[in-house]
Amino acid sequence: MEFLLLGSLVIRADGKELTVPAPRQRVVLATLLLNANRVVPLETIADLVWDGTPPPSAAATVRTYVMRLRQVLGATAGARIMTRAPGYLIELDENESDLGRFTAHRRAAAALAGAGRTAQAAEELRQALDLWRHQPLMDVDSRTLHDVEVGHLQRLHLQTRTWRMDMNLELGRHAEILPELWRLVKEYPFHEGLVSRLMLALFRSGQQQEALGLFQRTRAALIDQLGTEPGPELKATQQDILRAGEESRPQGSTGVRQELSDGPGPTWPGWPTPAQLPRGTVDFTARVSEAGEVGRLLRGEAPTAGPAPTVVITGAGGIGKTALALHTAHLVRGDFDDGQLFVELEGSTGRPVEPAESLTRLLAALGVPDGEVPESTANRIALFRSLIARRRMLIVLDDAENTAQVRPLLPGSGESRVIVTSRHRLDDLEGAHGVPLGVLDEGSSLELLERIVGHRRIAAEPQAAYRIAVACAGLPLALRVVGCRLLARPRRRLGDLAGRLAEPRRLLDELRVGDLAVRTGLDAAYASLHHRSVHGVDLAAAFRKLGVGNVSYIRRETVAVLLDCSEENAEDVLDALVDAHLLVEYDHNRYHLDALSLVYAREHADKEGPEWRVETLRCLLQTFLHTLSGNGRPFTPGDGPTTYVLRRHTMEWTDHDSAGVRAALAQAEAVGPEAVGLRLLGELRRRLPSAAAPRAVSG
């Protein structure tokens, strides 16, 4: 169970979000959560629900609200709300709410700071602040609750931000915290403690004149709007800067950077050196050649004219694009003295970040105050390219939806380098170097699994480990999910999990842990097919048809019959499914559905009506029989109403083809032999054994 208060009120149970639609019941729940494990008097709850003017029936009504809350939360979670005179109490572990975790991080930071471990303390405070999504309880309608409780939380939030600023100043991270300090001072212009800290950070970054100018502007605003002079802290900071400036530059100062040496440039306060790369994958493996290729492209000489070199890493969801990008970025970051930028574009979520918003984030990382960010996207692009033109930076743009989302974020020229990850090839991105990623082979899959769970467990059950690797179809995300599940159960046998993964209808449900799920990537790929067609063929329907027979390898000419189109048009449809990463081109006219895509296709095929499934399966089996018969004429069984015409040609029959026929026959047995056609099934079984060895057949 999880309760989130630091933003909108969110309740999660068993992976689902619960909704409390009644506004006053939300106030009751929020009140109890803010006072978790403490009794809240009924009168206090009533005051918050009715904003200080409760009706005579308030006590009885609150009891009704509590009863309904218990029903919404369910039997187990609802029992946490306990009746305790003179009111109610909700039992909650500290880690079951974001407010509890926020408090725990602050407590840990205090202990670390007391032990002199300032860097670790600052990291605890960062994690605490990351829990804040927005104004606490922003969708809970109670003025009194917001004035008293939420006001207290906001002051605690500001105190935590200020505390972290002090730690970062102590650690010498002056330039790094300048953008956030500017935002804070803009939000609290008369908070003299924040202004003082910003002045100090500016001075230590070599911005003495800007620091003194900030003091003068703040003093003028205080006199004009509040009728008061700056307090002792602010005045002391000004005097310290004046004295230190006369004596020498401060230790560790980086000086003012002249950004555009060819002419007058922007005068934003400070030039931070961003280091935004997220942590890389600790068990990165199996992509040695790709990492070497990306590294060579990033370290190569920049062209004397033209755009900065860009590397585009592409592949299916969960294939390891971001892992490769971050692994390589960390390897080469020493070559980029001016810093590293990282932007999540969220292209696969269905809600891609607009270029204007991404540019705002980039400009903030480069030291541009919020108030100085241009209004128009065109001007933001121009400013970004001006600021970066003379720098050597590494920019990682993760999860791009298309080229239009990426192009505005690319430097116009210069020594910077860009890594883009995307599920799409971005062929129209000028001058980009493509690095496509495929699935891992069995050896690499086992190596990755071993890196996660340890050599001992793999060595103890090598056959089970192999079965797990095969079930995961070489997808790194699937292997990582399995590895995480095994790590969480150190006594669990690999064979047990391998057995669960061997059940097709459970496979995708088993490949999920926390917020990692293989199904998420498949859902996104399938959603991209909706309302799309090629030569009049609905792509989503075509994919569903491929799942009916449970056939892993399928030929282009077979698909042409299934889709009732020419082989050339079928090839275009199949290529579209390949581009969506739901299919892989195996050779010149055969395509492969891996174990994960095949299960997913079957799931969606099963949602169609039984008549549709039977007709599609019959069509598939008739096509197989026509190919095996080799008589160059259409086969029309007496118990099937449709005739399917195939072009006559000769092809090499393989074990994959035989396996496909057997899989389709098994599906027919499950659906019902009479419905599919007894004569058709009998004829196929009779001909199949003679085709077991590879040979040329006519179709």
Q: If helices are DSSP runs of H or I spanning 4 or more residues, what is the number of helices? A: 30
The CATH class assignment of the largest domain is: Mainly Alpha
> What is the share of helical residues?
40-55%
Strand arrangement across the biggest beta sheet: 8-9-10-7-11
CATH architecture of the largest domain: Orthogonal Bundle
Please give the structural blueprint.
Blueprint: E1 2-4, E2 10-13, E3 16-18, H1 23-34, E4 40-41, H2 42-49, H3 58-78, E5 81-84, E6 87-90, H4 98-114, H5 118-130, H6 143-170, H7 174-187, H8 192-204, H9 208-226, H10 232-247, H11 288-299, E7 310-314, H12 321-332, E8 340-344, H13 355-365, H14 377-388, E9 394-400, H15 403-406, E10 417-422, E11 432-436, H16 442-453, H17 455-460, H18 462-471, H19 476-488, H20 494-501, H21 504-510, E12 512-513, E13 516-517, H22 518-527, E14 533-534, E15 537-538, H23 539-548, E16 553-555, H24 556-563, H25 567-579, E17 584-585, E18 590-592, H26 595-605, H27 610-629, E19 650-653, H28 655-671, H29 673-676, H30 678-687, E20 695-698
Parallel strand pairs: 7-10, 7-11, 8-9, 9-10
Antiparallel strand pairs: 1-2, 2-3, 4-6, 5-6, 12-13, 14-15, 16-18, 17-18, 19-20
